Amino acid sequence: MANIIFDYDGTIHNSMLTYAPAFRDTMKWLSDSGYIAHREYSDDEISRWLGFNSTDMWGQFHPELDISVREEARKRLGENMAQRIEYGEGALYAGAEEMLSALKNAGHTLIFLSNCRIHYMERHKRVFRLDRFFDRFFCCEEFDFIPKYEIFRRIAPEFSGTFIVIGDRFHDIETAVQNDLLSIGCAYGYGKPDELSAASNIVTSIRDIPKVVEILLK
Asked: Side by side, which strands form the sheet with 2-6?
């Protein structure tokens, strides 16, 4: 049996259903308010920010903006996404629940580790009843937004046995590489191929994860 550390957005949650419209609404507010020039954003441009914690995202996306403006934009985007989740616009990937159930029933310990804020984690935990699957929940806000690979070092002593990190972005594979762990890169998510190149294995379908977990543990 293993401790399986899952990323959430882009790995289990089909984030673009809520992130893309919320992002575009927030950009419109910024342009209507005169803070940035108006332009259209492609899904590819938007999805590249999934997986970043919101503070890092805004610091890199529009570093020229005043901190107070970036913080207001961050809050607006988060509140917009929250409303969409509550209105039922969000969804887990098809096959996610079956995949998580299979791993849970096989006796693995499932650990949620996301670069999100506490309110986001708790809302999704409630809406999608994630505690059916996950034994523990952790998010970057609880650790002052340090990188995932450092968060792992803080939580690892609470568990015993082998770890496998599963995710779609470089933050996840970095966590595995920095801590000499097994990993599965999720090519169906929002990361580019080079972000997953150091993964122990790569899957193109969420339904393949249980099979690959068993292969890695042999």
From this structure: 136-139, 109-114, 2-6, 162-167, 182-186, 201-203
Asked if residue 56 and residue 114 are part of one domain, the reply reads no
Rounded Cα distance between 151 and 185, Å, is: 19
Question: At which of 42, 62, 86 does a domain end?
Answer: 86
Beta bridge partners of 6: 112, 166
- Tens of pLDDT, residues 171-212: 999 999 999 999 999 999 999 999 999 999 999 999 999 999
Rounded to whole angstroms, how far apart are CA atoms 23 and 212? 34
Check whether residue 202 and residue 122 sit in a common domain.
yes
Tens of pLDDT, residues 19-59: 999 999 999 999 999 999 999 999 999 998 988 888 888 88
Q: In Å, how far from its chain's centre is CA 47? A: 11
The answer to whether residues 217 and 161 touch, using CB atoms and an 8 Å cutoff, is no
List the domain range (segments joined by +) for residue 28.
Answer: 16-86
pTM: 0.91
Q: How many domains does the chain have?
A: 2
Q: Whole-angstrom Cα distance, residue 57 to residue 37?
A: 19
DSSP designation for 136: E
Are residues 114 and 176 located together in one domain of the fold? yes
